[in-house]
Specification:
Helix content: 40-55%
Shape: globular
Distance between the termini: 53 Å
CATH architecture: 3-Layer(aba) Sandwich
């Protein structure tokens, strides 16, 4: 099963591309649409859910927008993962820059830079071995506590 998540916003280009290639894929596909208006004809879909973890667990492959919160959440699942930057946002470079950086840091995901390549990237993802993402150590909480205690 392929699960696609858009987050709370719109990512019509991704939803339309998945819907267009759905019949070629032969996989069951479920799409979380967010606030988008395009309704897929070849896939199951829903707009929002309070928790996506059950969909992540059921999926063999997850395709997502490039929001950092969602990307890190999916990376923690260890599932096959394709991330696509949603450039039709207020800041069109935000997800691009983030996905360029995180895809250099880990092979826990494939960054799809052009939705026209999504079908071939899905085929690649089905064969590729993905590494489980390891969070780098973070001491921010300690630094903040020390700063607060000093001031």
């Amino acid at each position: 099963m392929i699960f696609v998540t858009i987050g709370t916003g719109k990512f019509e280009a991704l939803v339309k591309e998945i819907d267009a290639i759905a019949l070629k894929l032969k996989d069951k596909i479920t799409i979380q649409l967010g606030s988008g208006s395009y309704k897929p004809k070849n896939s199951k879909w829903f707009t929002f859910a309070p928790d996506l973890s059950k969909y992540y667990k059921q999926a063999d492959l997850i395709i997502s927008h490039g929001g950092p919160g969602t990307v890190f959440e999916i990376l923690e699942t260890g599932k096959r993962f394709i991330a696509c930057a949603n450039v039709n946002r207020t800041d069109p470079r935000h997800q691009v820059e983030f996905l360029e950086a995180i895809s250099k840091e880990t092979n826990g995901l494939i960054y799809c830079t052009d939705l026209k390549d999504l079908y071939s990237i899905i085929q690649k993802a089905k064969k590729q071995k993905f590494a489980r993402y390891k969070k780098p150590p973070c001491w921010m909480d300690k630094i903040v506590r020390e700063f607060v205690n000093e001031n």
